[in-house]
């Protein structure tokens, strides 16, 4: 009865998120949210998390799109190799980063540039974007690019009109998933990050578990802010960005 129907899973996950949001709101006051505006640790954690999430997402997207385009007419062992990181949990990828990057200057774990965290996420999320986009590339009609070549378009314009307009929304969709995941993640920055400033997921976890009950409302307030931010991003993506990309793919740019 429910086979192939996504709504039960959607309702279950949405119910869990909304229940957690309700509990978090009930544990906070307006003063807790005002205090966040002057909390330099929170603000620095947000800035750091945005830097890592944006860097990881853009690098993963660029590499993933390039690989998907290259292997769209090929297959075999290359895809099997690219699938290997998907079977390694993020915690395992973080331990691999400690093992291989510990003696590398400027990249090793616990460096203030956070390159080890970014590279770990690129290693994990590039295959996700690749497998997200490879079916899209394989469904494209390559005659569009051939027509662009006949019309004398440059390589960039041929790519955009032949492929770019069709992969724009799937690429943004995959990027949104990666960005949201990295922004609120805990395992990788907890193992590879520095003690200060911490990424926001680590900071919230420490506030909630350090034993000082007076800090727990701050943790709940941050959780509410982050969840609300994610919902706002999802709303913008769904009701603003998606219609624009659909019009572009259909050649109706207003």
TrEMBL record:
Annotated membrane topology is:
Multi-pass membrane protein
Domain of life, per UniProt, equals Bacteria
Main location (coarse class): membrane
- InterPro entries, alphabetized: MetI-like (IPR000515), MetI-like_sf (IPR035906)
Residues that span the membrane, as ranges: 7-26, 46-70, 82-102, 114-134, 165-186, 219-241
Subcellular location per the Swiss-Prot or TrEMBL entry = Cell membrane
Among SUPFAM superfamilies, the record links this protein to:
MetI-like (SSF161098)
Query: GO CC terms for this protein?
Result: plasma membrane
One Gene Ontology BP term is: transmembrane transport
- What keywords is this UniProt entry annotated with? Cell membrane, Membrane, Transmembrane, Transmembrane helix, Transport
Residues in domain ABC transmembrane type-1? 46-237
Q: Which family does it belong to?
A: Belongs to the binding-protein-dependent transport system permease family. CysTW subfamily.
Protein name in UniProt: ABC transporter permease
Origin species, per record, is Exiguobacterium oxidotolerans
């Amino acid at each position: 009865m429910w086979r192939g129907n996504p709504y039960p899973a959607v309702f279950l996950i949405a119910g869990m998120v909304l229940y957690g949001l309700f509990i978090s709101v009930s544990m906070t006051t307006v003063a807790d949210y005002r205090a966040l505006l002057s909390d330099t640790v929170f603000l620095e954690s947000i800035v750091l998390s945005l830097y890592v999430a944006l860097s990881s997402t853009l690098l993963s997207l660029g590499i993933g799109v390039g690989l998907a385009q290259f292997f769209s007419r090929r297959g075999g062992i290359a895809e099997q190799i690219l699938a290997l990181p998907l079977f390694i949990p993020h915690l395992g990828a973080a331990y691999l980063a400690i093992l291989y990057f510990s003696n590398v200057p400027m990249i090793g774990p616990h460096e203030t540039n956070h390159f080890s965290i970014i590279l770990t996420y690129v290693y994990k999320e590039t295959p996700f974007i690749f497998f997200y986009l490879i079916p899209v590339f394989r469904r494209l009609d390559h005659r569009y690019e051939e027509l662009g070549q006949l019309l004398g378009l440059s390589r960039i314009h041929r790519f955009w009109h032949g492929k770019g307009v069709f992969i724009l929304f799937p690429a943004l969709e995959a990027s949104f998933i990666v960005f949201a995941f990295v922004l609120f993640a805990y395992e990788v920055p907890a193992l590879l990050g520095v003690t200060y400033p911490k990424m926001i997921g680590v900071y919230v976890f420490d506030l909630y578990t350090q034993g000082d009950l007076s800090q727990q409302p701050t943790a709940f307030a941050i959780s509410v802010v982050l969840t609300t931010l994610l919902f706002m991003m999802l709303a913008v993506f769904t009701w603003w960005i998606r219609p624009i990309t659909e019009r572009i793919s259909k050649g109706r740019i207003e």
